[in-house]
Automatic annotation (TrEMBL):
GO biological process: tRNA queuosine(34) biosynthetic process
Alphabetical keyword list: Lyase, Metal-binding, Queuosine biosynthesis, Zinc
Protein name as it appears in the record: 6-carboxy-5,6,7,8-tetrahydropterin synthase
Family: Belongs to the PTPS family. QueD subfamily.
Length: 132
């Protein structure tokens, strides 16, 4: 299996509803996002997924949140914008695109950092044993 990894970032504010601490207050992060895509079939050029297209799609999702209050964006109007929920949001958004653009390939994981020392990785069910 091949694994392609791209990264992007965005700046946004959020707050955690019902959180018993400082994170209940509005605050911001420079969020880093890492996307890993896996597959086995290369095209005639020897490419699994075009890096340019992969970065473009990741940047589109990042841009939709950039310099915004995440709590005011779908699906975070009702869902807490935790790093965990953001990683799943990126996974779902990018999986939908990948299935159409590059069938047979999968999003292996999405990692979201809210700080240089704190990140979460969303791994789809069934892929746990495949991820080092």
């Amino acid at each position: 299996m091949y694994e392609l990894i791209v990264q992007s970032h965005f700046d946004a504010a959020h707050f955690l509803r019902d959180y018993p601490g400082k994170c209940a207050n509005v605050h911001g992060h420079t969020w880093q996002v890492e996307l890993a895509v896996g597959g086995t079939q290369l095209d005639s050029l020897g490419i699994l997924v075009d890096f340019y297209q992969l970065k473009t799609q990741l940047n589109k999702v990042c841009d939709s949140l950039d310099h915004r209050m995440i709590n005011e964006q779908e699906p975070f109007l009702t869902q807490n914008p935790t790093a965990e929920n953001l990683s799943r949001y990126f996974y779902e958004s990018l999986t939908a695109w990948l299935k159409t653009a590059y069938p047979g390939n999968v999003v292996r994981y999405v990692r979201v950092w809210e700080s240089p020392k704190a990140s979460v990785r969303y791994i789809p069910e069934g892929a746990e044993g495949l991820i080092p």
